[in-house]
Write a sequence for this structure.
């Protein structure tokens, strides 16, 4: 007689929060967690969250809205076990033309907003004695980019933040990691001319853009069982563009 194989246990749904999840990379990340069977909440400023997610209106530059968003998610899905801090903006211009507002608005959203999210999520994760925090950075944060001093600074800051959180919270089985995408097929890159696209691809060893699903795969891996011993890491999804950085 042959022994019957034991049925595989279904993954236990987790409470997942993805910020800026109504389009592009954030939407793909949210959909990937939904496909896994998790309970997914998505912050948006104007709606449009993917099917199967809880649409939470939140401007992450407003501390009170962040607190209200977490309260809404916790009531619906329980304490946030996986935080993906993805929401971000750009205000690109050369350094000498960059206004105080160009600088402060990008830092406030991309860096300070991520700090607010991580701090609030950590409260619930400490009580659970487990959690995963993933910051969506950019190859630009490590490689640099002319005309993006503000954006690059904000994305580089996420690396220091993640590594400090990893050291602070690691004893409670909470990991903090960074995914650093390169050029990705999104609405933002879709407006580039053919010449601009060709110039970008020429810099990338794999000679193409990433898909949003490829970025999402790195994020879900970091949040999964296979990455339980990975923390303080920067995972590039950039086709080799930022090699060595």
């Amino acid at each position: 007689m042959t022994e019957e194989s034991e049925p595989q246990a279904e993954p236990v749904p987790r409470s997942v929060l993805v910020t800026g999840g109504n389009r592009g990379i954030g939407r793909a990340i949210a959909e990937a967690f939904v496909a896994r069977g998790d309970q997914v909440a998505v912050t948006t400023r104007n709606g449009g969250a993917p099917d199967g997610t809880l649409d939470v209106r939140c401007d992450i530059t407003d501390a009170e809205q962040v607190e209200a968003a977490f309260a809404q998610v916790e009531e619906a899905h329980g304490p946030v076990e996986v935080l993906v801090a993805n929401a971000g903006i750009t205000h690109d211009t050369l350094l000498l033309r960059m206004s105080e507002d160009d600088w402060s608005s990008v830092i406030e959203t991309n860096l300070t907003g991520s700090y607010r999210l991580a701090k609030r999520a950590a409260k619930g994760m400490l009580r659970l004695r487990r959690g995963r925090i993933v910051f969506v950075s950019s190859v630009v944060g490590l490689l640099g980019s002319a005309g993006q001093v503000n954006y690059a600074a904000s994305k580089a800051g996420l690396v220091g933040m993640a590594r400090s959180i990893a050291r602070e919270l690691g004893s409670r089985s909470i990991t903090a990691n960074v995914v650093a995408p390169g050029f990705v097929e999104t609405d933002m890159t879709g407006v580039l001319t053919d010449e601009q696209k060709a110039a970008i691809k020429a810099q990338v060893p794999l000679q193409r853009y990433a898909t949003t699903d490829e970025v999402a795969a790195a994020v879900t891996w970091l949040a999964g069982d296979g990455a339980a011993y990975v923390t303080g890491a920067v995972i590039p999804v950039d086709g080799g563009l930022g090699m060595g950085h």
Notes: The longest helix spans residues 100-128. DSSP finds eight helices and seven strands in the chain. The mean pLDDT is 93. The CA atoms of residues 43 and 56 lie 5 Å apart.
